[in-house]
Write a structure and sequence with these properties.
Structural class of chain A: alpha+beta
Largest sheet of chain A: 8 strands, mixed
Number of helices of chain A: 13
Oligomer: homodimer
Number of strands of chain A: 16
Order of helices and strands of chain A: HEEEHEEHHEEEEHEEHHHEHHEEEHHEH
Helix content of chain A: 25-40%
Strand order of the largest sheet of chain A: 6-10-11-16-15-14-13-12
Radius of gyration of chain A: 27 Å
Chain lengths: 463, 463
C-alpha cells in the first residue's frame, strides 16, 4: 500500500473516509491503559500530528505501549472520521511496525525548553513545534521568492561565493585558502605568497552578489540572485550572523522608484503566499511567539508603504520629542531605534526612506543632482527596522571612476565593473534583502540564530 | 507609457497589432542608408531580438544611425504586424532616445568568438546568443527544480556553507579564516592557534549539505538542499570546478529504489519543463552546440531508465570487447569511459548502477546483507557519465559508529550525526545532483566553465 502523508489527511480529509491507510512517522506522545492506547504521530509533512488509537489486539501491543517518544513506526489502520470531536479524524491501527526505537534520554521531553538550550541541539530542534514552524515557513518563503521573480520573467543568477573583490569596499571578509596555515609559502618580502594559493591570489567569501547581478542585468534586463553571503564581523547580536542568505534583484532601465515598487510588491507577495500556504504555522506564531503578528502582517499586506526622504525623516525625528540613545543629525546614519520609530510610531506601516547623504552610503550608488545625496533607499518595517537596502546604480562611467579613486579602492579590481558602463551602460537599479530578516519579520522570532538551520556566529560553527 | 518586454511581443503578438509600444534594449546590429535604417534590438527578456525600423523623420536620425552596437536606447513606435515576412512583426520608430552610447571597441563584434576568449570577458558574454541561452536555461532549470520539490511537499533547507566537519571524510577542502595570514597567532606547540579564529576552531567550506539534510529529513520527512558546494581539488578538467551548486534531496522512510524513482521523475520533470519553457534556446543548442540534443533529451524523457547492479555492470563491461584505458575489475571504481559505455552503448538511455563495493563508497552508505556492497546508486546519462550519486543511509547506529572508527575519522565531529540514529532513527535515503552537470546535459555544453556565470577553477577567481 502506498503511504499517505499526514498533510494529505488534513487537506483532503473527505477522500479518506472509511479508507484503509498506511503511514509512517515519529511518536510525539504516547499513553496507554492495560488494553488500549493513543499515539500522537507526526510525519513532518504537516504542522499537526494525527492520533493513532491502538489496542491489545495488536500482537506487539506491549512493545508498542512502552516505546519512548520520538521512536519511529509504520502504521496500517482505518481512517475514522470524527467531525464532532476536537480532532476531525483518527487512525484505528491494525498493524504497528517499529522502525526505530528511540533512547529514553531523548532530549526533547514534553516540557518547555529555552531557545538557548535548543540551539545546542540544532540537529533535533526542527522536531519541536516552534522550529518545525520556523523552518517550514522559511522554505515556503524561499519558494514564494523564486515564484514571484519567475512570474515576472527574472533570470536567477548564481553569483560567485568565492571572490577576489570586495563589493562594499568596506566589509570584513573571510579569507578562503587552500594553503596550509602551518606551512605558509613566503614571498621575497617575507609575507605570505598569495600567488601560491589555489586561485593564484587572495580570495574571500562574498559579501554580496550585486556586482555580478549588475553584469547580468545588462544582458537579461531583469535578474536576481538568491544565495549565501558572509560577514566576518565580530558582533554578537540577535540580528547578525556570519553566514546568511540574500536576495538581490537588479533591473536595467529602472530608476529608484521602479525598484521601490518592485520591493513593495515582492514583500506583499511573500506575506500573502506564506499566510495562504502555512495558516497553521502562522496561527501558532501569532499565539505563542508574537501576539499581534497577523495584524502586523495583514497591515503591511494591505497598506501602501510610506515614502519619505532621509532629509524629511531627520526633521520628523528631531521634532519627535523622543529621547533617543543615538544622536539625530543630518549626515549621520539612522540607527535601529530611529528606523523603528519612523515605521512603528510615525507611519505605523513599512516605509521607504530615500536619498541618503552620499557619505554614509556605498560607492556604487547614483549621485543625485544636489551633489549631496544618493538615489538610495532603505525599507523600514515595524518590529525589525531595515529590511531592504537598495539604490539606483551610478551608470556614469566618469562619476563612478572618480568615486572609486576618491575612496582609495583598488581600481584594478573594478575594470570589468567600469566596462559595464562603457559598453551599453544604462540606468539600472536594485536592492538587497536579508532573507533571515524577512523570516524574523514573518514569524516574530527575535534572534537570527533561531531562523537559520545551523547558524554561524562568532565562536560557533557547530554541526 | 508602460514599457513592454520583447518576450511579450513574441508570446502575445496578436494583442499588440496596431498598438503603440515603448521598449528599451541594446543594439545587436544596426545598418542604415541615407534616409532609413534598421536596428536589431534585444532587451534580454527573450532569446530573439526585434527589428526596429527608423527613418530620417527622427530629428536625431544621424546620431542614431551612427550608434555603435551594444548601445542602449529607448524606442517608441508602432507595432507593425508582418505575418508574411520572416519576422512576424517589426516596430516603426517614432522616437528613439539614446540611453547609453557604447564604445566602438566593444569586444563582442559580429563574428564568432571562441568560448575560451569569451571566458575572459565573462561580464559581457551573457549578451551573446550562446551564453544568453545557457544562463536562461540554467535559471529555468533551477526554477523547475524548486517547483518539482515544492509540488511534492519537500522542505527546502539552507544547509551551512561554513562547516567544522568534512561530510565525505575525504574531500580536499578550502579553509575559511578571519586570521591575518601575515600575523598568525601561535599556540604552545608553535602551530597556528585555531582557537583564536573566528569560530574558535578550524572551519572549511562545505563539500555537501547531506548530513544537515539528514537531520532535517528526520524531522520533515521530505527535504532538499540547493546551494553551493566546494572542492579544493587541483584538477584542471572540463568537468570540475572549485565552486558548484548541488541539489541534495533526503527522504525519511525511503529505501534505495524509492529515491531512484524520485531521481528519475525529477530528471524527467526538469527536461520537460525546460523544453516547454525555452523552446528557442533548446532549438539553438540543437542546431549550433550539439546536433541530436533534442533526440537525446526526448529519449530520456520517454524511456524507463535502466537499472543494473554494479556486479552485473562489471560483467557487461568485461564481455564488451571494448579497449578501455582503465582496467575493469570487481572492486575498482567505474571510470567515465565505462559509465558512458554502459549508458550510451549498452542501454542507450540513462541507467542506474546500484550496489557498489563498500570500499569505494562513502562511510554513511548502508551496508547490504552480503557484507560486501552498499545500497548506493549512480545515475549514468549519455554524454556525461555520472549525473547523480545517492544511497540509502546507514541507519544502524552501531554499524555506523564502527565504520567511522574503522576509517579513522574524527568521532567527535559526528556525535550529532550518530544521535540521529539514536533518537527516532529510521530508514532514509537521498542523493546529490551536481547542478552544472545537469546544465551541461541539458544544453550540450561541454566545459563546466561555460555553464557557470563566473567560474572558479585552479588559478582563476576573476570577476
Amino acid at each position: 500500500m502506498k503511504q499517505v502523508l499526514i498533510k494529505d489527511l488534513y487537506r483532503n480529509t473527505e477522500s479518506f473516509i472509511d479508507k484503509k491507510v498506511e503511514l509512517s512517522g515519529w511518536i510525539r506522545t504516547i499513553r496507554d491503559s492495560k488494553t488500549f492506547g493513543f499515539i500522537e504521530l507526526n510525519d513532518g509533512s504537516f504542522f499537526k500530528s494525527v492520533q493513532i488509537v491502538f489496542d491489545d489486539k495488536l500482537e506487539n501491543y506491549k512493545d508498542i505501549a512502552k516505546l519512548p517518544i520520538s521512536s519511529s513506526v509504520k502504521v496500517e489502520g482505518d481512517f475514522i472520521h470524527t467531525p464532532q470531536a476536537k480532532q476531525p479524524f483518527e487512525i484505528k491501527a491494525t498493524v504497528i511496525a517499529i522502525e526505530g526505537t528511540s533512547n529514553v534520554d531523548y532530549p526533547l521531553q514534553k516540557k518547555r525548553h529555552t531557545f538557548e538550550y535548543l540551539r545546542t541541539i540544532a540537529h533535533l530542534r526542527p522536531r519541536t513545534n516552534t522550529f518545525s514552524a520556523v523552518f517550514r515557513v522559511r522554505s515556503i518563503a524561499a519558494y514564494a521568492m523564486h515564484k514571484f521573480f519567475n512570474e515576472k520573467g527574472f533570470v536567477y543568477v548564481h553569483s560567485p561565493i568565492i571572490t577576489g573583490s570586495d563589493t562594499e569596499g568596506a566589509g570584513e571578509m573571510f579569507r578562503v585558502t587552500s594553503l596550509d596555515l602551518n606551512k605558509l609559502p613566503k614571498n621575497e618580502e617575507g609575507k605570505t605568497d598569495d600567488t601560491k594559493d589555489f586561485f593564484g591570489k587572495e580570495t574571500n567569501l562574498t559579501v554580496s552578489g550585486q556586482l555580478s547581478a549588475e553584469s547580468f542585468a545588462l544582458a537579461f534586463r531583469n535578474v536576481y540572485t538568491f544565495g549565501p553571503t558572509f560577514r566576518a564581523e565580530n558582533s554578537n547580536t540577535a540580528r547578525h550572523a556570519a553566514e546568511f542568505w540574500m536576495i538581490e534583484p537588479e533591473v536595467a532601465f529602472a530608476e529608484l522608484p521602479d525598484i521601490m515598487d518592485l520591493a513593495e510588491e515582492m514583500v506583499k507577495y511573500v506575506i500573502g503566499y506564506v499566510l495562504e500556504q502555512a495558516p497553521e504555522e502562522m496561527d501558532f506564531f501569532n499565539s505563542f511567539v508574537e501576539k499581534g503578528l497577523l495584524d502586523r502582517l495583514n497591515n503591511a499586506y494591505t497598506a501602501d508603504f510610506g515614502r519619505v526622504t532621509y532629509t524629511e525623516a531627520i526633521e520628523l525625528l528631531k521634532k519627535s520629542g523622543e529621547n533617543f540613545a543615538y544622536p539625530v543629525e543630518w549626515g549621520l546614519d539612522l540607527q535601529t531605534e530611529h528606523e523603528r520609530y519612523l515605521c512603528e510610531k510615525v507611519y505605523q506601516k513599512p516605509v521607504f526612506v530615500t536619498d541618503y547623504p552620499k557619505e554614509i552610503k556605498a560607492f556604487y550608488m547614483r549621485l543625485n543632482e544636489d551633489d549631496k545625496t544618493v538615489a538610495a533607499t532603505d525599507l523600514l518595517v515595524p518590529g525589525i527596522g531595515e529590511l531592504i537596502g537598495g539604490s539606483q546604480r551610478e551608470e556614469r562611467e566618469e562619476v563612478l571612476a572618480a568615486k572609486i579613486k576618491e575612496l582609495g579602492m583598488n581600481e584594478e579590481d573594478y575594470w570589468w565593473y567600469l566596462e559595464l558602463r562603457k559598453y551599453g551602460g544604462t540606468k539600472h537599479s536594485g536592492y538587497g534583502l536579508g532573507f533571515e530578516r524577512l523570516i524574523m519579520y514573518l514569524t516574530g522570532m527575535t534572534n537570527i540564530r533561531d531562523v537559520i538551520p545551523f547558524p554561524r556566529t562568532p565562536g560557533n560553527a557547530d554541526f
